[in-house]
């Protein structure tokens, strides 16, 4: 069966659009999720929507599963190959098809890099707002699949808030046009449904993005706090005051020290926690916001505070934050990045809970995250070469995810579920929600060919994992620790 | 069968939660869509989620269809009763359950009025942004069903951008928790899918709303233009300049004159078109935005321009716009309000097309609409007592909807499809998209009990209407006029 399929695939696509030999397949065996690898059956790299349709139809005929892949920068294993499945890479579809400054939209192919959109829009004073850390490399198609966020999504929203339309190839090989260039579209919101669906519902072949006017100016405050709790409470106070910073990031002391060792950003290493609070807009607006935030952060106990004086200094303040992940690699051979989201008022409490789990599991954990929208990124440090450390790290990750759920939050903010958080999904959702997810999946992909085994766990898996009472009952998760 | 059902219903709900007698049922025979009436089998008015679940389960057992209803202010017939169906009114579920100024969220029951949320949030300096014209009366549940917008959605988004979570009762009687208090939620985005689904996928019993800091101040510009085209082009120029007004409304001369006759707002009746352009934010920001917009509107040919000097004058400027619909009732016994959305760059062209259709169909049509997001509201004037006029008006409405689709737009912006735009949906979507909508519907409501005959036309209806080639073919709509 795979032999006939591979033969047919070779007839369908030109040689440069196919990877078949074992050595070259190795380049595709993982995405940016550490600890997971698998070899695909083959890699197809179509250059057009027509080629995507042809490949999907062929897979359907031969019942070969398909795993779509963007730039491979995903952190949850959404693009991890599945054994026996075709990997469908969209990196060659990277044309910027149209840019309309009046409607403030850009129509692009899925392989276009996130930052390339803003670069193309710059001459019109426009930009594309979502800015994941990987924006130099990650693709718009991948951003759509994972509903990517970034430092500025507190003010400007996630991918779902910035995409106006899509073209989606279904498993039938039909091409659906979802949304468009307008604010709303009639019918069910299949556009939003598709965004963040991690390649399980269809293959995105075109995306219409909303562009925003580039803010005239921006300034950032760097504020040190004597305790992590004080910084967390300053975040809650700031948001309650009615300020919406363009970005509001928190770094704990171990992260700050790692960053300082790495690139000497000028961060105050004596602070137990550091906040970066940015304002953007017109000069007058930025001045007013910075003054208000400055006053409030001092009132909340900041014991050091600096405001960027020019664009160079602003970039320097951010450079440290942006280097936090590479800096963390110097603290341990490996790190595992979590992605829980919690209500802002629970920040101090949950950070304390994570510190407790760190002691309990015996794994160091540092924190650097989007505090403004309560999106935590605990980095658990470990050494993959020490037997058992990765398993223990994963177990601690699951405990953090459950802690977030118990605090009224979510197991993921912007990285997606992929293969990484399948078990955590059993804590997030009950059997009714999971059953509805599976029904929606069947409505798009009745044969289950698209990215199998990702994003949505089976009811059976959840039942085995944690004693989910599939047919109801009072306690859904009797094994869950109570926080 | 209905007899057994009605008996069981009486055992389930207290007398005050049931309307059964013919005379009292008449109060529920329509919503705000003119020209359509139908009597429901009965009206249930549950006071709690538990009662909703019980009613839904009973309907399922007896296979009685259900039509959910909010405040009945909808303009597309989404809450129009269906003969033989139970009308499920949610107006008694009107508790504000929680308001959290730190997370900036409000958790409310579906019957809470839109404006009541902002009133409750006002002491914290917060408000709920979506502001449909009916906001004094319309309910949050209805806003969710229709994905309501309003004057300020240009800057602050539609309902889907301002709802963080829902509780949804399925036809099975299960209660799904969708979204939450956080920015994003893992799994498929069933939250967004449900918003705007017009009561076809489930019954909303609780909504978590995002609140925003109330802008410190606001000012509005009133600018007259010598032609409608000049005003339309000013809108495009303004948006292309990188300004996002809080509201940007256009009214043509017949509307301005009707408004002046009605309440003497002080509008310049000699202008062929009038723009209202609002800025909100900090004092400095508003001053800068108003100066920039003022300069640009004059450059685009405004021949009269006034800026509101204080809050009283700002309210006065808006009063005329808000009175446009009642004022229109003085021009003719009845009017029919359309709701197309088009790309902003096509505004002048489509308005000219509507004027042509007005001549062709012999029905006067006035225009007052959300120009900033290209959301047209043509009001077709007619007299329901003159035989044939309503049919001709509806036909012109369909032609306008098709004109919007041909311009790359949509048949609805914020009023929903309901029963009104079912035929227009056949112009908006091809058979592949419609088939996918129907598959999603089956994934939620396999028996088709929820709001039958609304929002999504059958493939058969579209095929009969316009020769849709269900099994493919080059020309999907051979009868469509080419614009």
Automatic annotation (TrEMBL), chains A, B:
Keywords: FAD, Flavoprotein, Oxidoreductase. SUPFAM superfamilies: FAD-binding/transporter-associated domain-like, FAD-linked oxidases, C-terminal domain. Residues 36-214 form the FAD-binding PCMH-type domain. PROSITE patterns: FAD_PCMH. Pfam families: FAD-oxidase_C, FAD_binding_4. The keyword Manganese does not apply. The keyword Oxidoreductase applies. Its cofactor is FAD. This is FAD-linked oxidase C-terminal domain-containing protein. It comes from Chitinimonas lacunae.
């Amino acid at each position: 069966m795979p032999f006939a399929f591979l033969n047919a695939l070779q007839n369908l696509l030109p040689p440069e659009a196919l990877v078949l030999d074992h050595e070259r397949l190795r380049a595709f065996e993982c995405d940016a999720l550490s600890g997971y690898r698998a070899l695909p059956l083959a890699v197809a790299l179509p250059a057009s929507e027509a080629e995507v349709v042809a490949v999907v139809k062929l897979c359907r005929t031969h019942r070969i599963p398909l795993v779509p892949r963007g730039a491979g920068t995903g952190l949850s294993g959404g693009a991890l190959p599945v054994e026996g499945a075709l990997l469908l890479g969209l990196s060659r579809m990277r044309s910027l098809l149209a840019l309309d400054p009046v409607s403030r939209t850009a129509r692009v192919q899925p392989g276009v890099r996130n930052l390339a959109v803003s670069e193309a829009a710059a001459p019109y004073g426009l930009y594309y707002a979502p800015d994941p850390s990987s924006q130099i490399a990650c693709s718009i198609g991948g951003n759509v699949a994972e509903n990517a966020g970034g430092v500025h999504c507190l003010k400007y929203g996630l991918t779902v808030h910035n995409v106006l339309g899509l073209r989606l190839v279904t498993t039938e090989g039909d091409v659906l046009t979802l949304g468009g260039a307008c604010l709303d579209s009639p019918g069910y919101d299949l556009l939003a449904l598709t965004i963040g669906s991690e390649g399980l519902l269809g293959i995105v072949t075109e995306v219409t993005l909303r562009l925003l006017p580039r803010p005239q100016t921006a300034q950032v405050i760097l504020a040190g706090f004597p305790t992590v709790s004080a910084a967390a409470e300053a975040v809650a106070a700031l948001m309650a005051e009615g300020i919406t910073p363009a970005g509001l990031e928190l770094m704990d002391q171990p992260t700050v020290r790692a960053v300082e060792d790495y690139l000497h950003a000028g961060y105050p290493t004596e602070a137990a926690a550091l906040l970066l609070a940015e304002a953007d807009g017109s000069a007058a607006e930025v001045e007013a916001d910075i003054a208000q935030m400055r006053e409030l952060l001092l009132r909340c106990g900041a014991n050091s505070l600096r405001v960027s004086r020019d664009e160079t200094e602003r970039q320097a303040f951010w450079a440290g934050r942006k280097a936090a992940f590479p800096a963390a690699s110097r603290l341990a051979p490996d790190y595992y990045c979590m992605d829980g989201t919690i209500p802002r008022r629970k920040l101090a409490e949950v950070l304390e809970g994570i510190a407790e789990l760190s002691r309990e599991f015996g794994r160091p954990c540092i924190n650097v995250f989007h505090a403004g929208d309560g999106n935590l990124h605990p980095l658990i440090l470990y050494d993959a070469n020490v037997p058992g450390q990765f398993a223990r790290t994963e177990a601690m990750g699951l405990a953090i995810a459950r802690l977030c759920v118990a605090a009224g939050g979510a197991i993921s903010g912007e990285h997606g579920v992929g293969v990484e958080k399948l078990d955590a999904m059993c804590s997030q959702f009950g059997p009714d929600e999971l059953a509805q997810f599976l029904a929606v999946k069947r409505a798009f992909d009745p044969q289950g060919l698209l990215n199998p085994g990702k994003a949505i766990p089976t009811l059976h898996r959840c039942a085995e994992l944690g004693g989910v009472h599939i047919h109801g009952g009072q306690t859904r998760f009797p094994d869950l620790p109570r926080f």
